[in-house]
Amino acid sequence: MPAKLRALCDYLDATDYPISGWMRLRPEGDALGAWFGPESDAWRALAGFGSGPDGSIMAFWLYDGREISAAPIVHLGSEGNALHILADNLDDFLRLFAIGYNELGFDDLSQPPDEPESAAGLRQWLESSFSVIPPEVGIDIVRYAQARHPDFESWVMRNVDIRDA
Description:
Layout: H1 3-15, E1 24-25, H2 29-36, E2 46-51, E3 57-61, E4 73-76, E5 84-87, H3 90-97, H4 120-130, H5 139-148, H6 152-159
Antiparallel strand pairs: 1-2, 2-3, 3-4, 4-5
């Protein structure tokens, strides 16, 4: 686990939820295996660390043997939808997470969040701990990440086992 993610988990242990919108931090290994299906091992290229209220998953995408420090952060919707690259790396994800969107995979990231105060404590902690200051909206973070990494949705669709669907 990257040191900054561990520190974020420690911060959460000390403060409890909400941390940012309705998002939760938690391991997602079993959920990823189920998401891709029993005959696919593609889920091993993902390191899940969070979820949305609907069961969507946030994960590091370790494609092409990437180290976790160079891995983009992705979103997998609980219904097989909303397959997005969210951030180029953990630092950019922390900037995005601290904006305070309710659901990163579904909210309009070109607009300010409805309830930014849900992440006020997180913003203060990130600034004092790591000098991380989030932008007002998240769209530039997402666009930058999407331009730097291959099409995540296509990769998922090539690797998901749909026999049981």
